[in-house]
Amino acid sequence: MLAAVVCWATYGVVSKSKGKDINPVALTYYSFLFCCIFSIPLLILEKPWTFIFKIPTSAWIATLYMSVFASVIGYLVQQMAIKEIGPSRASIFINLVPVFSIVLAVCILGEELVPVKILTAILIITGVYICQKAS
Known about the structure:
Domain EamA: 1-130
Protein name: EamA domain-containing protein
Pfam family, one: EamA
Shape: flat
Strand content: under 5%
Membrane topology: Multi-pass membrane protein
Number of domains: 2
Main location: membrane
């Protein structure tokens, strides 16, 4: 977990310093291109051709949705934010992920909106607001 945090922080700082002259779309494209290239050996080790045709269409659609919206568009927006407001201010908004998770879980999965979830969302939004005001 610590390594992931260090990698994410390094990514944000390097994106700001080295990415100021690079279009966020190009930066996102090359980031995902290299991730795909480095993932190919792992894909070969997993031998997906033995079960790839048994995967239901709904799983393919869900995977495509997560790839495009949750990953590519998310990183693109993050790159645009880093370019505009800097990595420290842009990274504050990652804390809103649980709030959106609560909203989507209630709307899509029909989960119950209990007081602790409401309190959690309020605390997170308040924290993000305070951090943004401070910077």
